[in-house]
C-alpha cells in the first residue's frame, strides 16, 4: 500500500510519548504505526530503585501498554528486537520481521561496565522489572543465608558501585529497608554494612556541592559508608577489589556506575559512542533521514557544549518532538528542531528525604521528597490521565 509505515522500537519514556502523540496527530489512514516492546507492560525506570530494595511493589512500577495506547490506531507487537537492517528497511524480531518507511529507535540504555573484570558476571543491575525482582530476592536470600551459614559477614555486606542518580537513590532505599529485614531475619542491624563506591571525585555529579554534601550526610546517618574517588578494580563472586588494593567482602554487588546505548544501535552500523548516536537537531540519524533515535540511545550536545545526561525527562521531550517531525515528514512539512526545556532535577534519599533543583532554586528534605512525588504523578498524568494517577500514584 502507499500508506507510510512507522515502526517504533521500545515502549519506554521516549517510545510511549512518540506513540501517544502520533495517535493524536495522525488522521485516519495517514500512516500505519507499530509499537514493538519486549514486554506487554511499560515500566517506570525512574522508580525501579524502590522495588529493587523492596520498599515498594512491582505493581506501582509498571502499567500494561494496552492501557496507554489506542489499539485501533496503533499495532502493539510484544517481541524482542534482534537486529535493525537499514538497507532493507527491516527490523528482525525474535519471531518475525517488520518493514518500515520510518523508524524510531527508543530502546533505552544498557549498563556500561568499562571493562572492569567480573562486573558483567557477578554484579546485579537496576535496569528492568525482571532485574530488580532478582535484586530484591537476592537480598532476602542473603539474610537467610547469614543465619544458616555461621553468620558469615559477606552475606550482610552490600556494595553499590556508582554514586550517580540511580546508585544514590538505591542505597537510600536499601538503608530504609534494612531495619525491616533485620527484624524479619533476627539480624543485629549494627552488623549490616552498605558501601557506596564511586570512582569520580564526587557523588551526584551535576548537583550543587551543598546538595551533594546534604545527601551524603543524610545517607551516612542512615548507615551508608561512602568511598568516593575510589574505583572498583575487579568484581569477584563474593566481593570487590578497589583500586587502593582494599578488598570488600560482599555477596551482593549492584552496579549502577555507567550507562550506554543499546547494543543493537552499533550492530546496525550507525556511528556511535558507547552505543549513543549523535543525532541531528531533528533527532534523525545522520545520513538516514527516515530514522530517529531518542532517549538513552541518542547523544545531543547542550548549548554549553557538553552532552545532555540521559534522563527520562529528555526522552519524553524527544518523543514529542519526534512525533511532530514524523507527521511533518509524512505531510511534507517543515520539521522542528529539538529544544530541551529543563524542568528541574529531583533525587530521592529515601522516605521523606531528597534533594532538588528547580530553576535556580534548591530544595532539600521533605519539600524535595514531595517534589519527587509531584514529578512521578505528573508523568502518570501525562501518559494516563487521572485514572492512572489514582491507580499507580504513591501519595504517601
Ligand atoms: P527506557 O525507558 O529504558 O525504555 C526502553 C524500552 O525498550 C523498555 O521498555 C525496554 O523493555 C524496551 N527494549 C529494550 N530492548 C529491547 C529489545 N531488544 N526489544 C524490544 N524491546 C526492548 N531520569 C530522570 O529524568 N529522572 C529520574 O529521577 C531518574 N531516575 C532514575 C533512577 C533509576 C534507578 C534509573 C535506572 C534511571 C533513572 N533515570 C531518571 C533515567 C531514565 O530512567 C532513563 O533515562 C529513561 O528511562 C530513558 O528512556 P528511554 O525511552 O530511552 O528508554
UniProtKB/TrEMBL annotation:
Domain FAD/NAD(P)-binding: 5-319
UniProt-listed Pfam families: Pyr_redox_2
Single GO term (MF): oxidoreductase activity
Keyword Flavoprotein among record annotations: yes
Keyword terms of this UniProt record: FAD, Flavoprotein, Oxidoreductase
Enzyme class, spelled out: oxidoreductase
Cofactor: FAD
EC number(s) stated in the UniProt entry for this protein: 1.6.99.-
Keyword Oxidoreductase among UniProt keywords: yes
InterPro entries (UniProt xref): FAD/NAD-bd_sf, FAD/NAD-binding_dom, NADH-Q_oxidoreductase
Family according to the record: Belongs to the NADH dehydrogenase family.
Listed name of the protein: NADH dehydrogenase-like protein
Organism: Paenibacillus auburnensis
Amino acid at each position: 500500500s502507499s500508506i507510510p509505515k512507522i515502526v517504533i522500537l521500545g515502549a519506554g519514556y521516549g517510545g510511549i510519548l512518540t506513540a501517544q502523540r502520533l495517535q493524536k496527530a495522525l488522521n485516519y489512514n495517514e500512516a500505519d504505526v507499530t509499537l514493538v516492546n519486549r514486554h506487554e507492560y511499560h515500566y517506570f525506570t525512574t522508580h525501579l530503585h524502590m522495588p529493587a530494595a523492596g520498599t515498594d511493589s512491582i505493581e506501582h512500577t509498571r502499567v500494561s501498554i494496552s492501557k496507554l495506547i489506542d489499539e485501533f490506531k496503533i499495532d502493539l507487537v510484544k517481541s524482542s528486537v534482534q537486529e535493525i537492517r537499514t538497507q532493507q528497511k527491516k527490523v528482525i524480531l525474535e519471531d518475525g520481521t517488520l518493514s518500515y518507511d520510518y523508524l524510531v529507535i527508543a530502546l533505552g540504555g544498557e549498563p556500561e561496565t568499562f571493562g572492569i573484570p567480573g562486573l558483567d558476571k557477578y554484579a546485579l543491575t537496576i535496569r528492568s522489572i525482571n532485574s530488580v525482582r532478582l535484586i530484591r530476592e537476592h537480598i532476602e536470600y542473603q539474610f537467610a543465608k547469614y543465619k544458616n551459614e555461621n553468620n558469615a559477614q559477606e552475606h550482610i555486606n552490600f556494595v553499590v558501585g556508582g554514586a550517580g542518580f540511580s546508585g544514590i537513590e538505591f542505597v537510600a532505599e536499601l538503608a530504609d529497608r534494612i531495619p525491616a529485614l533485620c527484624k524479619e531475619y533476627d539480624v543485629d542491624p549494627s552488623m549490616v554494612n552498605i558501601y557506596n563506591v564511586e570512582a569520580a571525585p564526587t557523588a551526584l555529579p551535576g548537583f550543587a556541592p551543598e546538595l551533594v554534601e546534604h545527601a551524603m550526610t543524610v545517607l551516612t546517618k542512615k548507615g551508608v559508608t561512602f568511598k568516593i574517588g575510589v574505583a572498583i578494580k575487579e568484581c569477584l563472586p563474593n566481593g570487590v577489589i578497589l583500586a587502593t588494593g582494599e578488598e570488600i567482602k560482599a555477596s551482593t554487588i549492584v552496579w549502577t556506575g555507567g550507562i550506554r546505548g543499546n547494543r543493537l544501535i552499533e550492530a546496525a552500523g550507525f556511528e556511535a559512542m558507547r552505543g549513543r548516536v549523535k543525532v541531528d537537531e531533528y533527532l534523525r540519524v545522520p545520513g538516514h533521514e527516515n530514522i530517529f533515535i531518542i532517549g538513552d540511545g541518542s547523544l545531543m550536545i547542550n548549548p554549553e557544549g557538553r552532552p545532555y545526561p540521559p534522563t527520562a525527562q529528555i526522552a519524553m521531550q524527544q518523543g514529542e518532538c519526534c512525533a511532530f517531525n514524523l507527521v511533518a515528514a509524512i505531510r511534507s512539512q517543515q520539521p522542528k528542531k529539538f529544544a530541551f526545556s529543563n524542568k528541574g532535577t529531583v533525587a530521592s534519599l529515601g522516605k521523606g528525604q531528597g534533594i532538588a533543583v528547580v530553576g535556580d532554586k534548591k530544595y532539600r528534605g521533605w519539600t524535595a521528597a514531595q517534589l519527587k512525588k509531584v514529578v512521578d504523578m505528573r508523568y502518570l498524568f501525562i501518559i494516563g490521565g487521572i485514572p492512572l494517577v489514582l491507580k499507580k500514584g504513591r501519595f504517601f
